């Protein structure tokens, strides 16, 4: 927990990821928040994880649909 600088893990920005951009977020120690230098998104670790899950789910569903479409 006492790590300085970057966060424990590199989280990708869910907002950018939705637009096909894989951007690592930075960690703001003072606010205990992650932020994206590209799109101004900020959020707590929990928020980032939740949004990333949502994006992953959406992408997964999309890929499934596309795959299915190919097979039909
Ligand atoms: Zn972003």
Beta-strand percent range? 5-15%
The largest sheet, given as strand count, sense and whether it forms a barrel, is: 3 strands, antiparallel
- Going across the major beta sheet, what is the strand order? 1-2-3
Mean pLDDT: 81
DSSP, total strands: 3
Order of SSEs, N→C? HEEEH
Number of domains: 1
Rounded radius of gyration (Å) = 15 Å
Structural overview:
By secondary structure, the chain is of the alpha+beta class. The protein has one domain (1-53). Helices cover 43% and strands 11% of the residues. The chain has a three-stranded antiparallel sheet. It is elongated. The protein starts with 13 loop residues before the first helix and ends with a helix. The model has no long low-confidence stretch (mean pLDDT 81). It binds zinc ion. Residues 13, 15-16, 23, 36, 38-39, 41 line the site of zinc ion.
